[in-house]
Amino acid sequence: MSTLVATRPRPAATGRAVRTVQDTVALTGRSLRHVLRSPDTIITTAVTPVALMLLFTYVLGGAISTGSSQSYIDYMLPGILLITIASSVAYTAYRLFLDLQDGIVERFRSMPVARPSVLWAHVLTSLAATLASLVVVVAVGLVMGFRTGASVGAWLAATGVLVLFTLALTWLAVLAGLSAKTVDGASAFSYPLIFLPFISSAFVPTDSMPGPVAWFAEHQPVTAVVDTLRALFAQEPVGGGIGVALAWILGVLVLAYVGAVRAYRRRVG
């Protein structure tokens, strides 16, 4: 693949943006092949969320009052989806760190490969792998009793929120992969992200928590995203919650993107 990227002819009139897209497609294909050769990555990513669904639904769910008529798995699934995303993006930091350590990125620098395409290839690979893991988790949720009367529009809106959330966390993963000193440090950044839904409305209503914890849970980004997804799946009005959720997601996305681009320039500059 590296040879193909280096030697394919480029029309003289092709602009920088077109070259970046072409190189991104080629490098994304390379990364996706690595994922397809080890599908256990997707399976491993889905194991933890599925295990949590089993635990909370069949062991703890009966002791938790949500104050709503929803079944507990319907209430809980949005938070499980966010945990799936946090688990999945850890592999992005891991793969990027290995590419840097193995000298692959330096080899690309010696070729006529657009610099942004290296990062975008990892981001798009992460998005594809994460969406596959989300499909697996939703499928298991349906088997366990998850039900929704959401319309096509609501499903599209929920998918859009999940895609944006994935992109935001993926760029954080890129920043972690560029900044880490060890392979363990590259993937460990995701642990707080996986833990954050537990201090939110993902599993219990925030008004059941002690005062300071409830305040934090109500004002952190995961609660806004979880409440939005839950409302979309339940065909309930999302109100201003979706605006808060999108503001959090886009804010993290922009900051993570800017930080990752700057870290990349310092690392390869």
From TrEMBL:
Q: Where in the cell is it found?
A: Cell membrane; Membrane
Can you give the residue ranges of the ABC transmembrane type-2 domain?
A: 40-267
PROSITE patterns on file = ABC_TM2
Keywords annotated in UniProt: Antibiotic resistance, Cell membrane, Membrane, Transmembrane, Transmembrane helix, Transport
| InterPro entries the UniProt entry points to | ABC2_TM, ABC2_TM_bact-type, ABC_2_transport, Nod_factor_ABC_transporter
Q: What is its main location?
A: membrane
What is the superkingdom listed in this entry's lineage? Bacteria
The answer to keyword Nucleotide-binding applying to this record is no
Residues that span the membrane, as ranges: 42-64, 76-97, 118-146, 152-176, 188-206, 238-260
Topology relative to the lipid bilayer, per the entry, is: Multi-pass membrane protein
The Swiss-Prot or TrEMBL record describes its family as follows: Belongs to the ABC-2 integral membrane protein family.
The protein's matches in PANTHER family, at most eight in alphabetical order, are given as: NODULATION PROTEIN J
Protein name from the UniProt record: Transport permease protein
Q: Which organism is it from?
A: Cellulomonas fulva
- Top-down, what is the taxonomic lineage of the species of origin? Bacteria, Bacillati, Actinomycetota, Actinomycetes, Micrococcales
